[in-house]
Amino acid sequence: MPIDLKKARTIGFILSGSGIALVLMVHWMVMDWVPTEAVQGVVQRIFYIHPPAAWTTFLAVGISALASLAYLWLEDERADAAAVAAAEGSLIFGAILLTSGPLWGRIAWGTFWQPEPRLTLTLLLWFIMLGYFLVRGSVDDPRKARRYAAIVPILGALDIPFIHLSVEWFRSLHPQAVVLKPEGPTADPDMVVTLLTSFGGFTLLFLGLFTLRYAVELGDRWAQNLPSPSTSQPSGVAA
Amino acid sequence: MTLGLQGAPRLLRGALRLLGPLLVILSVPMPLLAQNQGRGALRPFAYVFVAYGLVWVIIGFWVFLIARRLGRIEERLRDRGPGATDG
């Protein structure tokens, strides 16, 4: 088997378990510990999941793009499996990003959605990553499907700098960064600690689930190539 | 309370019972909830609650998909005997 399923499962459980513990801790901090923001009030607490979801989405798109580049270069099955696992993660965390943002905006801006640069480019990124799976499913030859689809996350990764810089380049409803600034964070220290804990939790959760999904993808491909029990053993598999 | 859903599939009935109260909170005019005392005071809490709840729903969906696929692979490997995982 190309991957030790038990080992991957253990690593995945440890990482995602640590991530869940940190996210639960963030829930407690948000409910009981962190101060309420003076202008926006309670709804500002969505802040502690929204930027971490954005960071995790970008991380997933970045991993998928790098793995796709590796696949285009080396045609290694493991790189393609990593690209698939990360692309799926980008859709999941992108969905969190694109649902938490409008809920916050409904109270803060008075509208769920505004066609402004950062929101539009983020939605575009989500659809680009959805396109990755559509391209994979639309070509009959599996090798060609993988090669064509590998272009898509690379295009998605090119969108990320535009999303990040759009609030500085254009007039935008979306606020500018309050933590990742050259002159240091301007938010309350307790808010920064809560946000950083959430960043850690989301990152570990993603890496844990990514590991499990990667192992499943490789294991699934390997199991599909196994002959039925009545026929001969596949090459490289001990009797 | 049946909500007239006797004919609906069990999963759909469960989902509607779970989401129904949330949709009511989000859609009911504030005077009904707050009786004009602090108009709009509860709505931000509801939005924060829904945002945090959706994190777990979406993550749970991905965990469910991964667990189902993992279960299938392990089942297929079990069918082929202990030697199938070597190598």
Work out the helicity level of chain B: 55-70%
- Number of separate helices of chain B: 3
Basic shape of chain A: globular
Number of strands of chain A: 0
Count of individual beta strands of chain B: 0
User: Beta-strand level of the residues of chain A, as a percent range?
Assistant: under 5%
Structural class of chain A, by secondary structure, is: mainly alpha
N-C termini distance of chain B = 57 Å
Largest sheet of chain A: none
Structural class of chain B, by secondary structure, is mainly alpha
Approximately how much beta-strand content do the residues of chain B carry?
under 5%
Q: Return the average pLDDT of chain B rounded to an integer.
A: 73
Q: Spans of chain B with pLDDT under 50 lasting ≥5 residues?
A: none
Compute the gyration radius of chain A: what is it? 21 Å
- How many strands, which pairing sense, and closed or not: the largest β-sheet of chain B? none
Overall mean pLDDT of chain A: 88
Q: Shape of chain B, please?
A: elongated
What number of domains of chain B? 1
CATH architecture descriptor of chain A: Up-down Bundle
CATH topology of chain A: Four Helix Bundle (Hemerythrin (Met), subunit A)
Topology:
The complex is a heterodimer of chains A (239) and B (87).
Chain A: H1 5-32, H2 50-74, H3 77-108, H4 117-138, H5 142-169, H6 189-224
Helix pairs in contact in A: 1-6, 2-3, 2-5, 2-6, 3-4, 3-6, 4-5
Chain B: H1 10-27, H2 30-34, H3 43-79
Question: How would you describe what is shown here?
Answer:
The complex is a heterodimer of chains A (239) and B (87). Chain A has 239 residues and is mainly alpha-helical. Chain A has a single domain (5-221), classed as Four Helix Bundle (Hemerythrin (Met), subunit A). Chain A has helices spanning 5-32, 50-74, 77-108, 117-138, 142-169, 189-224. The longest helix of chain A has 36 residues, at 189-224. Chain A is globular and about 65 Å long. Chain A starts with a helix and ends in a 15-residue tail after the last helix. Residues 230-239 of chain A have low confidence and may be disordered. Chain B is an all-alpha fold and 87 residues long. Classes of the chains: A mainly alpha (239), B mainly alpha (87). The interface between A and B is large, with 42 and 31 residues.
